[in-house]
Backbone:
C-alpha cells in the first residue's frame, strides 16, 4: 500500500533542462513521466505543479528591466508550456492526464476548479495544474501550496535536484548537514529557503506536510510513496 493516497507533486522547471542551458530536455521529461506512471499505477492520486524557470522567470526578467507584472505573466505562460510537454509525455505512456489552467485559455487547457480536479483524480487521471495561481507576484511554490490545500492532498512532494533540506546549500557548502525531518518553525528560525515564505506559511497553517527529495534520481518518487525514508519531511 502506498504511504499517501493523494499527493501534490511540485516539479522544478529548471530540472527539466537536464544538461541543457535552456528549454526542455527530452530524456529528463521521459524520466519524470516514467516515475509518475509508476506511482499512478500504484493507485496514488497524482496532481502536479511544474515551474517555468527553464523558459522564463518573472523575477529575473524584472531585474533586466521587464515590468514585473508582464514578466510574471510570461513566467505563467512558461509553466503552461512545461505542463503541456509533461501531459504529452504521460499520454505517450498510456497514462490518462489533463492540464487545468488558472487562467482561461481553452483549448490549451481546461479552466481550473476544485470540483473538476477532484473528480479527475478520483477517476485515476493525473491532473497537471498550470499557470500558477493566475496572478503576478505569486510563485509556483505558492501555487502548489494553494492547489495542494484545495484538493486536500495528504502531502506535497517537492522534487528538486538535491536530496533534502540542509543546514546550508550543499552545492556551495560541503560541510552542510541534512535534516531527516524539520518543523515549519525551525525553517523560519533558521532562515532556510525551502520555498518562499507565503508558500511555507500556507502549508503550516493548513497542516500540509512537505517532503523534499531528489526527483532527478530515477526511482526516488516511488520510494517516497512506498514509505522509504529518503529526503526531508517538513511538519508542524
Residues:
Amino acid at each position: 500500500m502506498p504511504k499517501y493516497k493523494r499527493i501534490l507533486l511540485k516539479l522544478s522547471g529548471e530540472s527539466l533542462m537536464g544538461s541543457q542551458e535552456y528549454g526542455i530536455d527530452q530524456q529528463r521529461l521521459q524520466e519524470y513521466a516514467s516515475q509518475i506512471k509508476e506511482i499512478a499505477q500504484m493507485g496514488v492520486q497524482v496532481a502536479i505543479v511544474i515551474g517555468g524557470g527553464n523558459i522564463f522567470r518573472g523575477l529575473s526578467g524584472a531585474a533586466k528591466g521587464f515590468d514585473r507584472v508582464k514578466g510574471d505573466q510570461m513566467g505563467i505562460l512558461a509553466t503552461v508550456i512545461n505542463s503541456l510537454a509533461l501531459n504529452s509525455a504521460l499520454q505517450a505512456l498510456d497514462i490518462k492526464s489533463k492540464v487545468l489552467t488558472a487562467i482561461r485559455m481553452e483549448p490549451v487547457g481546461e479552466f481550473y476548479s476544485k470540483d473538476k480536479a477532484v473528480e479527475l483524480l478520483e477517476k485515476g487521471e493525473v491532473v497537471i495544474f498550470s499557470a500558477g495561481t493566475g496572478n503576478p507576484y505569486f510563485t509556483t511554490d505558492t501555487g502548489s501550496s494553494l492547489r495542494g490545500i484545495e484538493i486536500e492532498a495528504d502531502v506535497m512532494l517537492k522534487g528538486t535536484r538535491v536530496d533534502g533540506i540542509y543546514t546550508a546549500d550543499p552545492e556551495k557548502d560541503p560541510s552542510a548537514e541534512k535534516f531527516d525531518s524539520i518543523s515549519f518553525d525551525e525553517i523560519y528560525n533558521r532562515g532556510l529557503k525551502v520555498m518562499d515564505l507565503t508558500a511555507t506559511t500556507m502549508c503550516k497553517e493548513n497542516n500540509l506536510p512537505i517532503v523534499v527529495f531528489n526527483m532527478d534520481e530515477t526511482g526516488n518518487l516511488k520510494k517516497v510513496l512506498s514509505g522509504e525514508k529518503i529526503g526531508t519531511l517538513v511538519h508542524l
